Amino acid sequence: MSSSRILIVDDSAVFRKSIKKIIEPIDAEIVLANDGQEGLNLVQSAPFDLVISDIEMPILNGIDLCHQLKNDPITQAIPVVIVSSFDSNSDVERGFQAGASAYISKRELKLKLLETVKNVLSKSKFKRKRLIMVVDDSTIIRQVVENGLAKAGFQVISAENGRLALNLLKTMRPDLIISDIEMPEMNGFEFCEAVHADPAISIAPFVVMSSRTDRSYMSRMVQMGAAAYICKPFNIDELVILIEKILSDQFILLLKEKERLESERHLIVGSIASLIVALEARDKYTKGHSEEVGRMVSGMVAMTGASQREVETVTIGGRLHDIGKIGIRDEILLKPGSLSAEEFSIIKQHPIIGANILRPIPSFSDILPIVLSHHERMDGKGYPHGLKGDRIHLWSRMTAVADTYDALTSDRPYRLGMSHEKTMQIIEDVRGTQLCPDCVDLFFRWIEQDRTKATESSRIVTYRQAVSA
Q1: Domains 129-251 and 282-464 share a fold
Q2: What is the pTM of this model?
Q3: Average pLDDT over residues 306-324
């Protein structure tokens, strides 16, 4: 399925086909219209991500088409690229005044069109995902700013003052906040201070719009963390351009920070994976246990429809769930016989040791519950904290099932590994007391799927070996 829908509007069949051929490398469904009116009808009947239009056309020309699209709240966010043989400064100005995102001379189609369309689509998709909060006690100012931002393609929410805005921020996370200063209930200074005091929302750039042009006001707001200060009255297009610039810069900074954290995360995972290998090298019976638990629990989480990020996180958590055992003495960890009560109490510390190892690493905060709580039980008789039922994190409950299966089917110094059938029966027997019933059901579905895939892969290998022979 195409990721975008593009409408080409031109009364010349030659130019329609030429434009279509140029932009075909883009993953998009391309629709053609003979004139502006037909194009308008198509846009009003089905959603489009971009309109490419000529200017001089019968019935409805490109400038009027652009005006009508931008004056309709339903279609106003659709970017328009104008292509025309008329390319004087006045022609270009008319196009941009009508609301076009780009203007290209037909003489430069092959040179500029494809890259321009890619950039406009990318920018439009970026803006559609960005939520802007507008805070002003003036209904007229709010409406003007809201309409201007909506026309530019942004999502918008608004509030009459800082107090109402803070209430909205309890459930919504805007990507940028634009606020007046002098408002009832809570003014812009107080609102800005409250926003920057909350780590959950302080990352959003804060833009001030005010009729006060005092340098002291500007300096105070910037010192409080405002990203920009724009004086009323202002041109709405200037405001839109300013917000686009701020968000673009913010996005780049966040992207770089994400890349840095990912790089850090991979390095740390690699280092800790080495510790896991070292840990499992101490005991040949647990070799590969952590990797297998990680594989199982990631498969279970994937079946719930979780995001790729969540699956990756749980995979790491599964691999690191026993990292705390690195702090347990060999004579206890590798003891072939039964453990004394004192020795078992030491073993029960490994989830806490593991969590303490990972806690200083911010990017691992989301896997701490797996490491800390994978030995908790539904009946509250687990360790280290005796959590019960839903108080145990869902990922921890999933990991507990995977951990139990691999432990039972693996050889240990004091017993041989059990069969798949016997292990499944034991897991069924302890559902609801030791293991979460929902997680057991999920594991059963996953293990059946996994064993089916393994059987099919084995058959394929056997067939290929037979053919090769």
Answers
A1: no
A2: 0.49
A3: 88
